[in-house]
Amino acid sequence: MFSKSSEYAIRAAIYIAAEGTRDKMVGIGEICDHIVAPKHFTAKILQVLTKTRIISSKAGVNGGFYLDNTQPAISLIEIVKAVDGDGLFRGCGLGLKECSEKEPCPIHHQFKPIRNAIIKMMEKATIAEMATELKKGGGFLRKN
Question: Which residue has the higher pLDDT, 20 or 53?
Answer without folding.
Answer: 53
